[in-house]
Amino acid sequence: MDHFNPRNGLLHAEDVAIPDIAAAVATPFYCYSTATLSRHFTVFRDAFSGQDALIAYSLKANSNQAVIATLGALGAGADVVSEGEARRALAAGIPAERIVYSGIGKTAPQMAFALDAGVFQFNLESERELATLSEIAASRARRAPVALRINPDVDARTHHKIATGRKADKFGIPIARARDLYAEAAGLVGIDVVGVDVHIGSQLTDLAPFRDAFARVATLVEALRADGHDIRRLDLGGGLGIRYRDETAPTPDDYARLIADTVGALGCRLVLEPGRVVAGNAGILVTTVLDVKPAENRRFVIVDAAMNDLVRPAMYDAWHAIEPVRAAPADAPLEPADLVGPVCETGDTFAIDRPLPPLAPGDLLVIRTAGAYGAVMASTYNSRLLVPEVMVKGDRFAVIRPRTDYDGLIASDRLPDWLRPPEDTMLDRGAA
Predict the structure, then answer these.
(1) Catalytic: which of 226, 330, 344, 419?
(2) Model-level pTM?
(3) Inter-helix orientation angle 108-117/83-91, to 10°
(4) Is residue 344 flagged as an active site residue?
(5) Which one of 27, 202, 268, 426 has the fewest beta carbons within 10 angstroms of its own beta carbon?
(6) Which residues of 130-139 are buried (b: 16+ CB within 10 A; e: fewer)?
(7) Is the per-residue pLDDT at 429 higher than 60?
(8) What span, in angstroms and rounded, lies between the C-alpha atoms of 400 and 70?
């Protein structure tokens, strides 16, 4: 369910007409619904009301501070995978004691920052991370709370680029080595072993891989406790899928029951890291038709949004619902069209052979389910500007990230001395 619905044939975000936002900020732009974000998080949180759980929203899905702050006000923690995400979470008001620091390839300065901030837990991915964090914590006469991320060798049955729990994937520690590494961790002066972490992938629409992975982790927890480790937390990651096209996604209630069945008897405090399931349906990308170009046996609808704005179709062959902001007449014929952007790549394609009504330059289109892995993955490829993000609440809207400008885009480059006019070089040296 979302709060992007037509009224009198015109799409609204909550109580705001999409064309009104387009007139104010120009297209393309992302638009997020506060009501949808809040509802999705609340439904997920309430599914675990009978279990001791920290719901740590996964910032990699959408890290705009307005999104983070909206969820933080509802009690969300934050799952972060970089120092930048940690700083965003803190700046948006998420207390450090609700922040979980995950991610592969953490550097010593990044871990030092998170330790000094007082994060709830580190999810570590390797012996190197373990040793480095121990040294940092010991130098501060502290012990860092740690869970080791276990790779259970479970196929998540999702797109291969977002599967993370197979033995061939780069993530985690092979489950066969877990007990040895936990024994090593227990002997490190700067480490407090508190739990086990697992995350097998994203956009899972089948609960069976979760059941398999969690059952393996439960067996491991029992073995680790038998070895003398005080395993009191269990981070089960995220990955619950949503409906983009015709998927039948499990509900948070289904997911919560599965977790209770597989690991509930362990008595651990749970950490859950939802991202897409909270933010995905809460956002849309609005774009304008630039041209309708006929070709042999094809119709190209060229829009002002591009793959640099929403990379999922190009990167994952992802399917997104696409529709006109102003509803077409009921008798309008639907004919196949390729919806493409202006980037100089054939891969700059949002849809192929998609049934769409007649369209003309100036028409507004909406690309749905773009709230997760949309703006957060955008780039300035082809020297295109980053598009604005807008948040709606009731009958109000606000720009929560403005469109960048060309001066700033170009000014971020620096010319070396040998490419600059002599007078500029001399002025710089004189100023120095």
Answers:
(1) 344
(2) 0.94
(3) 20
(4) yes
(5) 426
(6) bbbbbebbee
(7) no
(8) 12
